[in-house]
Write a structure and sequence with these properties.
Strand content: under 5%
Shape: extended
Radius of gyration: 26 Å
Largest sheet: 2 strands, antiparallel
Order of helices and strands: EEHHHHHHH
Structural class: mainly alpha
Strand order of the largest sheet: 1-2
Distance between the termini: 68 Å
């Protein structure tokens, strides 16, 4: 019979001793325990997010449907040539990232109990509004049409500008929160 052992050095015990796999597993569980190991301290209360529910999934679905429909309408009315940079996609992703930044530091931060609104608007509506699959497919089209420089610039703009817009939204939301107090 094969017995797995491991060498563990304890700070209070200078010598080494071999632990069986069961002792090693128990020691690892104790180290991974998020509750304080000091018996004089009260254990920290561990809060977990609630599991997703069917009503939340439906809110994400409806919000995503509305966001995608709005995006489709804007793209349909502002169509760019097939093998060209599409500024409409950049505008859509930038406004969605900015809105999520503002909402994340204002309404969603002030009312964390409004989970339904957060998933409907943040995950659903704004998730459906923004589109990074169009960024990739547009860059691939540019690349296939022998415009690798334009494809790289498209990717760079689409990845940098919306992140900057989200940062500006976060900062403006934080300023609005401070002004409200």
């Amino acid at each position: 019979m094969l017995v797995l052992t491991s060498v563990v050095t304890f700070s209070s015990v200078p010598e080494r001793r071999h632990l069986t796999r069961f002792e090693l597993a128990a020691a690892m569980r104790e180290l991974a325990n998020p509750v304080a190991l000091d018996p004089d301290l009260e254990p920290a209360e561990i809060t977990r997010q609630k599991a997703p529910s069917l009503p939340h999934a439906l809110l994400v679905f409806v919000g995503g449907f509305l966001g995608t429909l709005a995006r489709y309408s804007v793209i349909l009315h502002n169509a760019a040539p097939v093998a060209a940079f599409d500024p409409t996609i950049l505008w859509i992703n930038s406004t969605g990232a900015f809105a999520l930044g503002v909402l994340g530091t204002t309404l969603f931060a002030r009312r964390p109990e409004w989970t339904g609104l957060r998933v409907a608007v943040g995950t659903g509506l704004l998730g459906g509004w923004t589109t990074y699959s169009a960024v990739i497919s547009g860059s691939l089209l540019l690349s296939h049409n022998r415009a690798p420089g334009a494809a790289f610039i498209n990717l760079a703009l689409e990845l940098v500008i919306p992140v900057v817009c989200a940062g500006v939204g976060l900062m403006l939301g934080a300023v609005a929160n401070r002004a409200r107090r």
